[in-house]
Write a structure and sequence with these properties.
- The complex is a heterodimer.
- By secondary structure, chain A is an all-alpha fold.
- Chain A contains 6 helices and 2 strands.
- Chain A has one domain: Cytochrome c oxidase, subunit III, four-helix bundle (Four Helix Bundle (Hemerythrin (Met), subunit A)), CATH 1.20.120.
- The relative contact order of chain A is 0.13.
- Chain B is mainly α.
- Chain B has a single domain, classed as Cytochrome C Oxidase, Chain A, CATH 1.20.210.
- The longest helix of chain B has about 35 residues.
- The chains are: A mainly alpha, B mainly alpha.
- The interface between A and B is large, with 53 and 58 residues.
Chain lengths: ~250, ~525
């Protein structure tokens, strides 16, 4: 790899010796090498699959932090508009916001989503069970995939059921004559459920691709990363829904 | 190996539909050049109309005021998004960043390439707005409701506004993808030994910019969607209960608040200007330390200031809203955070000046443009704390003073840094240097032109001329004494635009006939110039 590095003059191989300073140093403290057994002593980026997993996770958390902002803005706008008043001709202050009666099916949906987070966590843990990983390492089949796959299927089914449940909630509301455009509260109900539903559709797609990784990816690291990232995304969507549902139930 | 596989692919696969980070980066820069060309032409049309409002345009007749506003809108949108964000943040990061941290590719190359194509689509959608019924939107790049939410508010507010919203949504999506791939690259693909405190300052600024894109563009995306649903799905997020538009009272379902849009938009909008200028600041650090042949003065302070600017950048959005009827106490706190953000910016400027003063400078065009950046950054920055005072802003808000401020510090400073980047990294692409002689002509004419165009605008603003006024006649006749000043600015704008022909000529000529230089013509120590890298031309 490249031999020149900008920072830390001590470690620069100087091509231009005219500027003074310390002499070139051949030994680099972070250059790798040394004992081959302890991976933690290797340079960053060469510490094996665990490190790769950690980095993908970190990446996902960055993306989720941005996503959290997306929902946070909707929540802020919710409170902003909830307090919006208008002045009628008699100079009285009127609140436009009519609290929305939530369809009870949402509680079932919430329970389904929580349950799916649980099953997803089980699937995720199966990918990291030491005995199974060791068996794979010895070349005795793919026990981690075998054990995780059913849980993944259950999770996807529960996720789809949640989406169907949300659709039912929309149908019930529109049967009562509450549409997107009816009232500020219904603006936000539909906005929140639609934005979250869209994220969950992406989540189901992520679960499906993780399932394909379980089937076809040979290296266990790849399968671990696929399932792990899908799982954390799924948990985050569950958490976001809890917060948003809490807002809809108690915030109105 | 990689080079061979690149050569085996067809020309189309190598130059267009590729995931190679260098090609994607250069594609971004070409897109920005197309956008800056359009934007400049629009601004010249605006300048001509402002001074000679009755001019007859061939095949069109005199320009109508709403057409002037459409020019304003598209000029601003092009320059802010497609030039000052797409080029320094997405483009340069894609072109240079992987090499500077010692890797051959981005962490998510397909995502990175996809981001370019989405942004290209977004540009085409935006420009298409000129060709639909009613033309381009007239509500400025900030698109304040309620007028941006009502199709009847003006000729461009129907189909044109919809296309604008679509373009912005696409741009958000593309930028988010690009930011994720920049963050992933810096986090996962640094070469062994490339620790955080050894990253070039350019990499720090791209990384920080990408981290700012994640939360801010998400907010714009939400606001954009809400505005769209106000327009087409009958909601009233931003629409007040009644509005009087063109003599008609329009009733809406609820009493939404246009102020909500201002909060959401500026919560995106202010971080956005730092996203645009941080890469330029990183570039200035990088080039100054290289041409003064010394390591950066207080590297850690520079990094800390970059991060401080990014953090504080999310807490100053209210200074765009002092006259919006916001709570005065809120104005006071936004004033404080705005003054606070001047501190890390000033520290960076002082460190740059110290670098320049202490080192024996090697004269070259990239250095000249970096010094030009520095000069414009200081000149434009000086009026920042002025506008941050709610009392002064009450008078200066929406006047040419603001126009002068952000064109100097964001527009001109950002473009000077881009020029510096092109002159500096051109040999990386071609193995040839751009002509120094033409470069100097370009620099001095552009510097004089930039000040001649934008500095007098301070006086127009102090004299009370509002921005967005299409002409200084009729009801605006009280401003007629400013016409000579504006005429001078228009002439200077022609000088400034013409000077860019030196750049274009230099660029085209140097592709074939530039002076051949070695692999590392500037004797730089950053890794993109590494001579042992087999992908080097």
């Amino acid at each position: 790899m490249p031999a020149t590095i900008t920072r830390t003059p001590v470690n620069v191989e100087r091509k231009d010796p005219g500027t003074g300073g310390k002499p070139p140093v051949h030994h680099r403290p972070t250059g790798g090498g040394g004992d081959g057994d302890n991976w933690d002593n290797r340079p960053p980026g060469r510490r094996g699959p665990r490190e790769m997993l950690a980095r993908y996770r970190m990446l996902l958390f960055f993306a989720l932090a941005g996503d959290m902002m997306f929902f946070a803005v909707i929540v802020l706008a919710f409170f902003f508009q909830q307090r919006a008043v208008r002045i009628d001709p008699a100079s009285a202050l009127l609140l436009d916001w009519k609290p929305l009666a939530l369809p009870p099916v949402l509680w079932i949906n919430t329970a389904l989503l929580l349950l799916s987070s649980l099953t997803m966590e089980l699937a995720r843990r199966h990918l990291f069970r030491e005995i199974d990983v060791m068996e794979e390492w010895l070349g005795l089949g793919k026990p981690t995939s075998r054990r995780a796959a059913p849980w993944l299927i259950v999770t996807s089914t529960l996720g789809c059921l949640f989406l169907v449940g949300q659709w039912i909630a929309w149908k019930q509301l529109s049967a009562e004559g509450v549409y997107f455009a009816s009232n500020p509260s219904s603006h936000f109900f539909y906005l929140i459920t639609a934005a979250h539903g869209l994220h969950l559709v992406l989540g189901v797609l992520a679960l499906l691709s993780a399932g394909m990784a379980l089937l076809w990816a040979k290296r266990i690291e790849v399968r671990q990363i696929a399932i792990d990232c899908a799982a954390w995304y799924w948990h985050a969507m569950g958490l976001f829904w809890l917060a948003l549902f809490g807002l809809l139930v108690y915030g109105q | 190996m990689m080079q061979n596989s690149l050569q085996q692919k067809s020309w189309l696969r190598r130059c267009f539909f590729t995931t190679a980070h260098r090609v994607v980066g250069v594609q971004y820069l070409l897109l920005a050049m197309a956008a800056v060309l359009c934007g400049t032409l629009l601004s010249l049309l605006m300048r001509i109309h402002l001074v000679w409002p009755h001019a007859n345009w061939p095949g069109h007749g005199p320009m109508r005021p709403e057409e002037y506003l459409a020019l304003v809108t598209v000029h601003g949108t092009l320059m802010i998004y497609f030039v000052l964000t797409a080029a320094p943040q997405n483009g340069l990061a894609s072109w240079i960043l992987p090499a500077q941290i010692g890797t051959r590719r981005m962490a998510l190359p397909r995502l990175n390439a996809l981001s370019f194509w989405i942004i290209l689509l977004s540009l085409l959608v935006l420009l298409a707005a000129f060709f639909v019924a009613g033309g381009a939107p007239i509500s400025g790049w900030t698109a304040y409701p309620p007028l941006s939410a009502l199709a009847s508010a003006g000729p461009g507010q129907a189909a044109g506004m919809d296309l604008w919203l679509l373009a912005i949504a696409l741009f958000c999506a593309g930028s988010l993808l690009s930011a994720i791939s920049v963050i992933a690259t810096v986090l996962t693909r640094r070469a062994p030994g490339m620790g955080w405190m050894r990253l070039p300052l350019t990499v720090w600024s791209w990384f920080t910019g990408a981290c700012m894109i994640l939360p801010s563009y998400g907010v714009l995306l939400v606001a954009d969607g809400m505005l769209f649903s106000d327009r087409h799905l009958g909601t009233a997020f931003f629409l007040p209960a009644q509005s009087l538009v063109n003599g008609q009272v329009l009733h809406h379902v609820a009493n939404g608040d246009p102020l909500l849009w201002l909060h959401l938009f500026w919560f995106f909008g202010h971080p956005e200007v730092y996203i645009a200028i941080l890469p330029a600041m990183g570039l200035a650090s990088c080039l100054l330390e290289n041409f003064s042949r010394r390591p950066p003065i207080s590297y850690r302070t520079m990094v800390g200031c970059t991060l401080a600017i990014a953090t504080l950048g999310f807490a100053v959005w209210g200074h765009h809203m002092f006259v919006s009827g916001m709570n005065p106490y809120a104005s006071q706190s936004f004033n404080l955070t705005t003054i606070a953000i001047a501190v890390p910016s000033t520290i960076e400027v002082i460190l740059w000046l110290a670098t320049v003063m202490g080192g024996g400078l090697e004269r070259s065009t990239p250095l000249l443009f970096t010094l030009g950046f520095l000069s414009l950054f200081i000149a434009g920055g000086a009026t920042g704390p002025v506008l941050a005072q709610p009392v002064l802003d009450a008078y200066l808000h929406n006047t040419y003073f603001v126009v002068a401020h952000f064109h100097l510090i964001l527009g001109m400073a950002g473009v000077f840094a881009l020029f510096a980047a092109v002159y500096y990294w051109f040999p990386l692409l071609t193995g040839r240097k751009m002509s120094e002689r033409l470069g100097r002509w370009h620099f001095w004419l552009t510097l004089v032109g930039a000040y001649a165009v934008f500095f007098p605008m301070h006086f127009a603003g102090l004299a009370g001329e509002p921005r967005h006024y299409a002409q200084l006649t009729g009801t605006a006749a009280y401003l007629a004494r400013l016409v000579p000043l504006q005429a001078g600015i228009t002439h200077a704008a022609f000088l400034l635009s013409t000077a860019q022909l030196f750049f274009v000529w230099n660029l085209l000529r140097s592709l074939r006939h530039g002076e051949l230089c070695g692999l590392n013509p500037w004797r730089a120590t950053t890794l993109e110039w590494d001579e042992t890298d087999p992908i080097q031309p």
